[in-house]
Design a protein that fits this description.
Keywords: Isoprene biosynthesis, Magnesium, Metal-binding, Thiamine biosynthesis, Thiamine pyrophosphate, Transferase. The protein is an alpha/beta fold and 641 residues long. The chain contains 26 helices and 17 strands. The strands form 3 sheets. The protein has a 7-stranded mixed β-sheet, with helices on both faces. It has a 5-stranded parallel β-sheet with strand order 1-2-3-5-4, with helices on both faces. A 5-stranded mixed β-sheet has the order 12-14-13-16-17, with helices on both faces. Helix 22 links the parallel strand 13 (508-512) and strand 14 (534-538). Helix 9 packs antiparallel against helix 10 (220-227). Bound molecules: thiamine diphosphate, 1-deoxy-D-xylulose-5-phosphate and magnesium ion (MG).
Length: 641
């Protein structure tokens, strides 16, 4: 398919300036070619496909009508930006999307002047666009802020905080609501129902001057007929919506795949004297690619696939994914415990809660993209005697930090946090890396922080969290497959703050938290081969620390190394603090901490990322040898230079 792909018109477009030189009648062909190129590229790379396919026409129309990059176009989340990347000078690298050294899967300021604002977490686009608009207004410079935000992203509080504050931008702010009636999963909640009502009823609630102006650019037969009647307002501009109440001129709903409508409407919006304006565009996620349109998830995120059949490449069968081990165990626990509830913020399958949602629909809550609400909602449930599990990716929980501190920890409420995608995540890169949760959670009074070394440990920790009613507790675990250990028939309740010795030695101690345990054991083998007898401990808890175990290890070994899949300020920092407070380093112990580096790592394969981070077996060995060399000037036989 890639070989037979012909894109004669797209081949002439390197930049939006080339696009603007085309006749309006050529835009349909351009959009068709752009769609084919997007499909072909993602077939090779994998990635976020459905959202991009839904905004092909919108992408063409925005760049055709607006003066990008002087007008600042901000894509919310940024997962729909592949067609935009193709039209903005990056087509030659589009088949490197999400690969090490390749293009980011999201918008990124360092990549292009056409990406004025980086994203990947949702619902930031209106605030950022407002910032651009107001900055230009103050400086007396031309240039609008244009936010394209999906119906899913529109469920988050930030979007409303921004709209509430947008009036001063006037006509410099344009918000394009891309309503495809989908989030990653089908959208939930009152806002989604409201948008559906607007689209289906098109009820007339009054229209303003803008409607008259819109007519100027509409194709004649439509404009002439509509201008006279309410039909115009029903079809194109409709007042009285929630958005108007918030101070926006509302334009819509518009068919987002019909360039003959999109172009004149956007031209009117561009030229309007009033504002801010919200354009409600209706699109189809996965548009124009049969397998995507037919799929339940609309090919939101895909593996590499065969373009003709749409069949995605499958990873060879392997151990279960952590998310599913968690989801299955929680669902099982909920069979005998009617107080268990599960909450997701728009990630029901990513967090493994699909099974729970089917088995216990009354106790499953998808709150939409609303992490802050998810946490405080869980706090309320906990305060009323329920056992809520808030399953949120590490990176997205960052957004709800004050809720964790203020609503959960200060009140010591037993909210259970199932923190998925902890550690480095691969192709999604720095925005999605779960680097900081150990740091930001283990510093909080009352909080317990656990990290399983494998999927069997995750079963035990899930069970332990269920039974932990005395305060908040978190389990952090990574993206991807477990290690292949046998899953326990019976989950055990772990003693809070107690680790375990996995391998006993006497010279070097490796203190591991989480799934680096495998690398720690490999390193121990390598050290043993060099004559350095090595203990490996799985600490299980970053908070509370197993002080007895740590004291014992630090006073009976010559070198101690902590390792974790987390940034500075986590396990290593807590062990160092304890060791210093307890006088454990006074006698000359060589204590080292291995953690994520103080940089934002770009996308790559996780194993490459961890090697870059210095968190693999080689790095552990090197650290130990360096510590010994530093002390004695010599190292055991076979040591690397
Ligand atoms: C704060 C935050 N929470 C969750 C996500 C995960 N996420 C990425 S895209 C998406 C759905 C977005 O839906 P919508 O805005 O309607 O865009 P569509 O994919 O439908 O084009 C979600 C939940 C995220 N990126 N950011
Ligand atoms: C864009 C976005 O935020 C999600 O689609 C994310 O990429 C999903 O990540 P996982 O593949 O780890 O579920
Ligand atoms: Mg959507």
């Amino acid at each position: 398919m890639v070989d037979v792909l012909t894109t004669p018109l797209l081949d002439t477009v390197q930049l939006p300036s080339d696009l603007r030189a085309l006749a309006p009648t050529q835009l349909r062909q351009l959009a068709d070619e752009l769609r084919q190129e997007t499909i072909a590229a993602v077939g090779v790379t994998g990635g976020h496909l459905g959202s991009g396919l839904g905004v092909v026409e919108l992408t063409v129309a925005i760049h055709y009508v607006f003066d990008t990059p002087n007008d600042k176009l901000v894509w919310d989340v940024g997962h729909q930006c592949y067609p935009h990347k193709i039209l903005t000078g990056r087509r030659d690298r589009i088949r490197t999307l999400r690969m090490g050294g390749g293009l980011s899967g999201f918008t990124k300021r360092s990549e292009s002047e056409y990406d004025p604002f980086g994203a990947a977490h949702s619902s930031t686009s209106i605030s950022a666009s407002l910032g651009f608009a107001i900055a230009n207004k103050i400086a007396g410079k031309p240039g609008k802020g244009i936010a394209v935000i999906g119906d899913g992203a529109m469920s988050a509080g930030m979007a409303y905080e921004a709209m509430n504050n947008a009036a001063q931008a006037g006509n410099r702010l344009v918000v394009i609501l891309n309503d495809n009636d989908m989030s990653i999963a089908p959208p939930v909640g009152g806002l989604s129902a409201y948008l559906s009502r607007i689209v289906s009823s098109r009820e007339f609630l009054g229209f303003r001057d803008l409607a008259r102006k819109l007519a100027k650019h509409l194709p004649k037969p439509i404009a002439a007929g509509m201008r006279k009647t309410d039909e115009f307002a029903r079809g194109i501009a409709m007042g009285g919506t929630l958005f108007e109440e918030l101070g926006f001129y509302y334009v819509g709903p518009i068919d987002g795949h019909n360039l003959d409508q999109l172009i004149p409407v956007l031209e009117n919006v561009r030229d309007a004297e009033e504002g801010p304006i919200l354009v409600h565009v209706v699109t189809k996620k996965g548009k124009g690619y049969g397998p995507a349109e037919a799929a339940a998830d609309k090919y939101h995120g895909v593996q590499k696939f065969d373009v003709i059949s749409g069949v995605q490449s499958k990873a060879p069968p392997g151990p279960p994914q952590y998310q599913n081990v968690f989801g299955a165990q929680l669902s099982k626990e909920a069979e005998s415990d009617p107080t268990i509830c599960a909450i997701t913020a728009a990630m029901p399958s990513g967090t493994g809660l699909d099974a729970f949602s089917k088995a216990h629909p009354d106790r499953f809550f998808d709150v939409g993209i609303a992490e802050q609400h998810a946490v405080t909602f869980a706090a309320g449930l906990a305060a009323q005697g329920m056992r809520p599990f808030c399953a949120i990716y590490s990176t997205f929980l960052q957004r709800a930090y004050d809720q964790v501190v203020h609503d959960v920890c200060i009140q010591n409420l037993p909210v259970r946090f199932a923190i998925d995608r902890a550690g480095l995540v691969g192709a999604d890169g720095a925005t999605h890396a779960g680097s900081f949760d150990v740091t930001y959670l283990a510093t909080l009074p009352n909080m317990v922080v656990m990290a399983p070394a494998d999927e069997a440990e995750l079963v035990h920790m899930t069970h332990t969290a269920v039974l932990h009613d005395s305060g908040p507790i978190a389990i952090r675990y990574p993206r991807g497959n477990g290690t292949g250990v046998e899953l326990p028939a019976q989950a055990q309740q772990l003693e809070i703050g107690k680790g375990r010795i996995v391998r006993l030695g006497h010279k070097v101690a490796i203190l591991s938290l989480g799934t680096r345990l495998g690398e720690a054991l490999k390193a121990a083998e390598a050290l043993e081969a060099r004559g350095l007898s090595t203990t490996v401990a799985d600490l299980r808890f970053a908070k509370p620390l197993d002080e007895d175990l740590i004291r014992k290890l630090l006073t009976t070994h010559e070198v101690a190394v902590t390792i974790e899949e987390a940034a500075v300020g986590g396990l290593g920092a807590h062990v160092l603090t304890f060791a210093s407070d307890d006088g454990l380093i006074d006698a000359g112990l060589k204590l080292r901490t291995l953690r994520l580096p103080d940089i934002f790592q770009d996308q790559d394969k996780p194993e490459v990322q961890y090697a870059q981070a210095g968190l693999d077996a080689d790095a552990i060995v090197e650290t130990v040898l360096k510590a010994l060399r530093h002390n004695s000037g010599t190292v055991a036989e076979g040591a690397r230079a």
